[in-house]
Amino acid sequence: MSNSRDEYNYVLSLLEQHHKWFQENIPLIASENIPSPAVREALTTDFGNRYAEGWPGERVYAGCRFIDQVENKCIELMKRLFKAEFVDVRPISGVVANLVVYTAFTEPGDTMMALSIPCGGHITMGKKELGGTAGAVHGLIVEYLPLDYKELNIDVDKAKQRIEKLAAEGKPPKLVMFGASVFPFPHPIKELAETIRSIGGTVGYDAAHVAGLIAGGQFQDPLREGADVVSLSTHKTLFGPQHGGVLSWEKYAEKIKRATFPGMVSNHHLHAVAGVTIACAEMLEFGREYASQIVKNAKALAQALYERGFNVLAEHKGFTESHVMIVDITKYGDGGTIEETLEKANIIINRNLLPWDIKEGRHFQHPGGIRLGVSEVTRLGMKESEMVEIAEFIKRVIIDKEPLEKVRADVAEFRKDYQKVHYCFENSTEAYKYIKIR
Ligand SMILES: *Cc1c(COP(=O)(O)O)cnc(C)c1O
Q1: Ligand 1 centroid, distance to 153 Cα (angstroms)
Q2: 10 Å Cβ neighbour count for 400?
Q3: Which of 70, 110, 126, 385 has the largest count of CB atoms under 10 Å?
Q4: Domain 287-415 adopts which CATH fold?
Q5: How far away, in angstroms, is 56 Cα from ligand 1 center?
Q6: Phi, psi of 66, deg, nearest 5
Q7: DSSP category for residue 129
């Protein structure tokens, strides 16, 4: 027998169990991170219950006195972090930020270019047939940017040819979206911007994964390299709450603003905007050190995995220059099964398509790869030597096939020393502490 009070307690207990689990596991999902206690505090505020449609100072609703000050501060700090002339912090996620870009810079029926999903592209860049946002929601015709499988990067010469061919066929790409969800190396914006502009296209850059690295002066600087517009998520390498944003130039401000509101948001998650503002202040103070440690950690983890027999891709160029690496796991099974097995040992990674998987008959449930990211473990204070320990845990599970409960116990023991959030002003509350305020 259950009643609503039981259901209520049940849900709360699940939340608490989740927190306990994350105190004991190794979080290696490349799109995730852990925000500071101050950001978590912002998320619990009354901002999350309010509306502020429109631009600060020109709102449709009353009651925005403090909300406007916070949002203006958010815009100001983000402009500083990314050296951007114009910033819109209202898109509520990276997906919505991409829709803002599509709406501002293209019309349904236009052609857009981006990486395919097996090559690292995101579902927001997907074709209509695949249900991707660009095709199915905004009606864009998606053509693929060619990927060099060995270099794990866009093939500049082939991309130029493809852009020019599409233009000659009367389908010039109105938008070329750089950026990806598997994004180990900086994309060739500089090399392609001129070609894109010459056929009347806009240079877009999806920084969802790498925004925190860009803010920390690592990886690349899309606005300086020729990007007209940059979309981002605020919670991947950038360590804010889940939210989005768009960076651009003053000359595009009006059309981006209109695409966001009234186009894409009504309420824009004001508690998250507050959290993003705090995260930006933390980034301004600690971002350089944090981003440089991320890249060192990623290289160290990739190297340690490689030395233990794992086929980490792009070994000839140091595996990665970002937070993420991709491993061809076919020697040991399929990505789906390996993801499940590692989770039982409290190591959280995700399965991932390799660029050539579809051609070889593999699919997303059981792909040939796994993707690992080090943003969250870096935020927990781990350095290169801990990356070697993590590689060893992964080897014990996948190669040595040690009993999972044994590895799980050792993982929990290892994690005891990393319970605080680093690269922030105040961390007296533990990273995954369950906070009760009822
Ligand atoms: C994660 C991701 C997004 C979507 O971001 P959300 O904030 O989850 O909506 C968009 N583009 C790329 C490349 C991503 O990896």
Answers
A1: 19
A2: 10
A3: 70
A4: Aspartate Aminotransferase, domain 1 (3.90.1150)
A5: 26
A6: -85, -30
A7: G
User: From ligand 1's centre to the CA of 415, what distance in Å?
Assistant: 28
Residue from 259, 205, 207, 206 nearest 228 by CA: 205
Block residue for tokens 């490349």: 30
* Residue-wise pLDDT tens digits, 204-244: 999 999 999 999 999 999 999 999 999 999 999 999 999 99
State both tokens at 343: 């989770």
Q: Rounded to whole angstroms, what are the CA distances from 35 to 241, 338, 432?
A: 6, 28, 10
The pTM is what? 0.97
Pocket of ligand 1 from Cβ distances under 6 Å: 31, 93-95, 98, 122, 124, 179-181, 206, 208-209, 233, 244
For a ligand 1 pocket test, name from 95, 137, 236, 269 the mutation site with the most ligand atoms within 8 angstroms of its C-beta. Answer: 95
Tokens representing 205? 């850059």
Our mutation pick for probing the ligand 1 site, out of 92, 115, 124, counting the most ligand atoms within 8 A of Cβ, is 124
Domains of the chain, by residue range, sit at 41-280, 287-415
